[in-house]
Design brief:
The protein is mainly beta. The chain has no helices and 9 strands. Strand 6 and strand 7 form a beta hairpin.
Length: 112
């Protein structure tokens, strides 16, 4: 079973075990772009993927949640600036945890 899903708008999405949520990577020709090796079972994206959440204009002391990683051959190398428990570790991308057709805008994998 594929570890990633394809976005109908272009790009890929995978489940991040550090953030316990999904991260989308734009490999579509328009806009910021990451390279993708085309292998949904063992994906590689370049350059690194940086996700920040929790930013607020109204709360100056609000801390960003940061997830910064390299994804190579189906493994996520979490960098030291991550704010979650997997910072500094390398782990396999988990299987896609959501039920088929559970996300709008996702093309489901048809391999068994």
């Amino acid at each position: 079973m594929s570890k990633i899903r394809t976005l109908t708008s272009g790009g890929q999405v995978f489940f991040c075990p550090g953030c316990k949520s999904t991260h989308a990577v734009n490999s579509h020709p328009n806009g910021p772009k990451w390279t993708y090796n085309g292998n949904p079972d063992s994906p590689t994206f370049a350059p690194s993927i940086l996700c920040k959440t929790g930013w607020s204009q109204t709360e100056p002391d609000w801390k960003d949640d940061i997830c910064h990683s390299f994804v190579t051959d189906g493994r996520i190398q979490f960098l030291g600036d991550c704010t979650h428990a997997l910072a500094g570790q390398t782990v396999e991308i988990p299987e896609w945890p959501y039920a088929p057709d559970g996300y709008v805008g996702i093309v489901e994998d048809t391999k068994s």
